[in-house]
Amino acid sequence: MTEENTQPLIGHLIELRKRLINIILSIAVIFLALVYFSNDIYQLVSAPLMKQMPAGASMIATDVASPFFTPLKLTFMVSIILSAPAVLYQVWAFVAPALYKHERRLVTPLLVSSTLLFYIGIAFAYFVVFPLAFGFLTHTAPRGVTVATDIKNYLDFVMSLFLAFGACFEIPVAIVLLCWIGVVEPADLKKKRPYILVASFIVAMLLTPPDVFSQTLLAIPMYCLFEAGVFFSRFYTPKQNAATELSTEADVQ
């Protein structure tokens, strides 16, 4: 490798290190700002279950260190989620110089929409799915069985649902990206609507608790988001990109 090739590589590595440090610092700042409220954050996250539990019932901690470490773990996860805009900005700042002008115009809406969709998915799980799912699960306990959920197991359960719903709400962005790079075409996706509908219920069955309410509440939004992705993908087809690039080059000349 020649010296001319080494210099750009070193510059990219230095820039990458800078962006990674900024990401770590953003997460650390948010975590330090929230760590004092760790117990309050856990209480907020556990509220959907506590409202559905029988009178006098409460959550338990089967591990000695769980009352201390579980809220801290939750706070760290919340810090990562809240720092998503800053993380995406650092990623964008690192890759933007390598993109064409029209590509930067197309990528920016994708970054913003992906962040908003992830947050909307989490909010949908918290405000809509959790009350219905926990209401069903707590009221189906056999007679004589007291519902007393372990705080650590509850955190693992709700975080898996948060990530599942947040990821599923990224379907439009995934479809747009696939159409943009030419892997699929919007016309082909329209023909596969019946299969996508069935697949939505299968995925929902695997990601949600074993009750029909939470499965349906995930499957229906997934399919609607698929339709939204198909609609917006027509603006990101390779043909559209090529035409935009030609017009951009003409403007430059």
UniProtKB/TrEMBL annotation:
Localization of this protein: Cell membrane; Membrane
Matches recorded under PROSITE patterns: TATC (PS01218)
UniProt keyword terms in alphabetical order: Cell membrane, Membrane, Protein transport, Translocation, Transmembrane, Transmembrane helix, Transport
GO-annotated biological processes: intracellular protein transmembrane transport; protein transport by the Tat complex
GO molecular function: proton motive force dependent protein transmembrane transporter activity
GO cellular component term, pick one: TAT protein transport complex
Chief place where the protein resides: membrane
InterPro entries, alphabetized: Sec-indep_translocase_CS (IPR019820), TatC (IPR002033)
Pfam families named in the record: TatC
Membrane spanning residue stretches: 20-38, 74-95, 116-137, 157-183, 195-212, 218-237
Membrane-related topology note: Multi-pass membrane protein
Keyword Nucleotide-binding: no
Sequence similarity: Belongs to the TatC family.
Subunit-level organization: The Tat system comprises two distinct complexes: a TatABC complex, containing multiple copies of TatA, TatB and TatC subunits, and a separate TatA complex, containing only TatA subunits. Substrates initially bind to the TatABC complex, which probably triggers association of the separate TatA complex to form the active translocon.
Known role: Part of the twin-arginine translocation (Tat) system that transports large folded proteins containing a characteristic twin-arginine motif in their signal peptide across membranes. Together with TatB, TatC is part of a receptor directly interacting with Tat signal peptides.
Protein name: Sec-independent protein translocase protein TatC
